[in-house]
Amino acid sequence: MMSSSNVSSMSNADVGKAFNAVVKGIGRNDIGEILFNWNESQLNMDGDKIISYPGRDGVFSRGKEGGKVNISKRDFLDWIFRDDPFDEKVYGANIRNDAEWTGLIHRARDATLIENTSSTNN
Fold first, then answer.
1. pTM, entire model
2. What are 17-34's pLDDT values in tens digits?
């Protein structure tokens, strides 16, 4: 089984493949929901980068607290495989009982595992 420690040892190319497998495996809407709940980020238009628009006015902010910021795919995958998506202090009491949220996280993990398995078998 993959874990956050496995993510830290993956090459950048493998991280990219695993992230793309998640996007392809669960779809833009579902990955968008996970990203927003993780750190209020989103996919770029091409669907191959995680971006955020910090600042009070988000996409319209410029300068010190604004503009577009790229976010690490490795950080996202590391988060997915830790217990963090089920942290009750962040996501509320009984988050593990939320079938929709747990389903999204498990589907994202499964999509990554499928890509990781196919990469190692080639």
1. 0.83
2. 999 999 999 999 999 999
Structural domain span for residue 97: 4-38+72-120
- What is the tens place of the pLDDT at every residue in 76-104? 999 999 999 999 999 999 999 999 999 99
Contact predicate 2/116, CB 8 Å:
yes
Domain assignment of residue 29, yes or no: yes
Q: Is 53 inside a domain boundary?
A: no
The total number of structural domains in the chain stands at: 1
Alpha helices in the chain (DSSP H): 4-8, 12-26, 28-39, 73-81, 88-91, 99-120
Which structure tokens are listed for 32? 């968008």
The values of phi and psi at residue 49, to 5°, are -140, 150
In a domain, residue 100? The reply is yes
Inside any domain, residue 49: no
Task: For residue 56, give every residue at least 6 positions away whose Cβ sits within 8 Å of its Cβ, in sequence order, or none.
Answer: 65
